Amino acid sequence: MPTAPRCDRTTAWAALQGHFQAHGRDFDLREAFARDPGRFDSLSLQAPEVFADLSKNRLDLATVKLLCELARECGLEARRDAMLAGEPINHTEGRAVLHTALRAPQGQGPFSDEVHEVLDRMLAFAEDVRDTARSGIRHIVNIGIGGSDLGPQMVVPALDAFVHPGLTFHFVSNVDGHDIAPVLRRLKPEETLFIIASKTFTTQETMANAQVAKAWFLQHGGTDTRRHFVGTTTNVKAAAEFGIDTTFGFWDWVGGRYSLWSAIGLPIALAVGAEHFRELLAGAHAMDRHFAEAPLPQNLPALLGLLDVWYRNFHGFGSRSVAPYHQGLKRLPAYLQQLEMESNGKCVDLDGEALPFATSPVVWGEPGTNGQHAYFQMLHQGTDVIPVEFILVKRPTHGHADLQAKLLANGLAQAQALMLGKTTEQARGEKAPTASATLDAQTLARHRTFPGNRPSTTLLLEQLTPRSLGALIALYEHRVFTSGVLWGINSFDQWGVELGKALCNDLLPRLASGDTAGLDSSTAGLLKKVRA
Ligand code: F6P
Asked: How much is the pTM?
């Protein structure tokens, strides 16, 4: 497909620069709400399963219009359609990008027969294991890293209310033995199913942990490795060489960080069962349709991706904090770190030319309200402006209505406090019982001033179900795609992880031999220290 111009070479970019100077740099949220009583209605929208309030962001409808023009000039819609049609848009690896095909109903997406054959087989297997009286399985251990770990590790606790009560899930990823050792201590071979999850089946950490698990299994009286080890991989041959003959495959057009919908989702299927796994896919598919069909000004993933560009490249905000007000989403920030930063942490465009502008922000966060008692101080009064994304879930799956009310009030209050702030005059008029009695009133008031005008987005789910979670994750995937297209980068390769892997392979034998020839003096010195 012909490449559209990169964002900085469009007329909309120049128009946005002018717009930023005139209306963006000094944009004040409090004034914007005072000026426009319809601001909430015009800057909020309902997408499948997710309601989004964008009104506490530093933009107005004129900004949205210009950002949508930018998206059109950068060919966002054409590139989206090319992705959905299976064109090889991951051009540095010569691959299509078709995670959306994994959640398309039978007969509706590319590779439908292959996708549904594996899906049906995997879900049937999951149901067999979930019949714990017959299978005898009580513990599931997923051994994988990156995209072969973070998706299932995030989704299983998020869907805790739907998880099989007789199964315990463990996720081992790190090559640090402190990860696997405490897990193995809690297991019995006859009750354990190990899933070796690796797209390539060559990843050092996963292969090393898989060998440790297999050795432990045999040393502890395990007798039937073929029944207790399964593989989820595109490399069936390597899995067979490891001694695995139950394998659920997928394809090179599924990127690791986009793979929880594939066989990599097996732990999720084991946890919540076939019906709920299909619901997860259906929720994601609904968001795919929304992304494919909604006009840009009402297209939530596109709008969030455009907002990211507006903040990163015009306002210069370097990070975004994610605050899920649902304890089940505690691993969402880690999941999003890979999704966003491995996808868009790039410094060259599609032609390999160095980019003259910033790309992926740092994405980080913790569940609310815990974050409030740790780093929210900085969000409110620090020197950097950090947009926050609040994720609220209206209806809990527990019966503690009082806790839920407090949780929601906290989430709403934080967004409000970030926006409203507090003037020094307001602070002076208040009592501060814990303040020093010897400090003068004006100095104290300055310490208790909040600049406000700090932006946030609120995403609201009715309930955290397989369907709404599927939609939420797909929303993030397409948002990352959107900003990647505008920045003119390939969001689907990850060459940045290669160098460290190669150097590790060089250092590993040196750790045994002590050979430091040719190393920089820092690495040589440290190598000697760790060997001493
Ligand atoms: O090192 C990065 C990476 O390639 C990720 O992109 C991927 O999700 C992860 O490693 C695991 O790879 P695999 O599934 O092949 O073991």
From this structure: 0.97
